[in-house]
Design brief:
The chain contains eight helices and two strands, in the order αααββααααα. The protein has 152 residues and is mainly α. It has a two-stranded antiparallel ribbon. β1 and β2 form a beta hairpin.
Length: 152
């Protein structure tokens, strides 16, 4: 079998960032957050895919790499340093849009719970995920037994 193509610097960085998270983020979970297949995520991390017995290089499009970096918290500067300036530009725009979305209610948005404050300020966490978690937490606090099943 022919030699494998080398792993890209950004593929290795994304893998290390994913594995360094606590709790560790699986390829399947990370891919779901990035709205891509686990197979494609793995191909970009490894730098190749096996096709008809041959290793074919996979570097990922700039948009794909930016979404992957966003999920695992890799910064645009680190992507740029790894040699993927196009992905770094897309990621910087994603982070700018996230920050703008989070401050839509005003830059001094107050949260009634430190956990909600932490969620709202967590870099790299997609805005829609933050909003969903905040709504879920507020709903749970209002009705902690909502959704409980079974007879009492």
């Amino acid at each position: 079998m022919p030699d494998k193509p080398p792993v890209t610097a950004w593929g290795e960085m994304i893998r290390l960032a994913r594995e360094a998270r606590t709790p560790r983020l699986s390829v399947r979970a990370a891919a779901k957050l990035a709205d891509m297949s686990p197979e494609n995520w793995g191909h970009v991390e490894r730098g190749y895919q096996l096709h008809r017995g041959r290793h074919r290089p996979v570097t990922g499009t700039p948009a794909t790499v930016a979404h992957m970096a966003h999920v695992v918290g890799v910064s645009p500067d680190r992507l740029r340093a790894a040699g993927n300036s196009a992905a770094a530009q897309i990621l910087a725009e994603m982070l700018r849009a996230d920050a703008e979305d989070r401050t839509a209610d005003g830059p001094d948005q107050e949260y009634d719970d430190p956990t909600l404050e932490y969620l709202a300020r967590t870099p790299g966490l997609p805005t829609d995920v933050v909003r969903g978690l905040i709504v879920l937490a507020r709903n749970w606090r209002e009705e902690p037994d909502a959704g409980a099943t079974g007879s009492q």
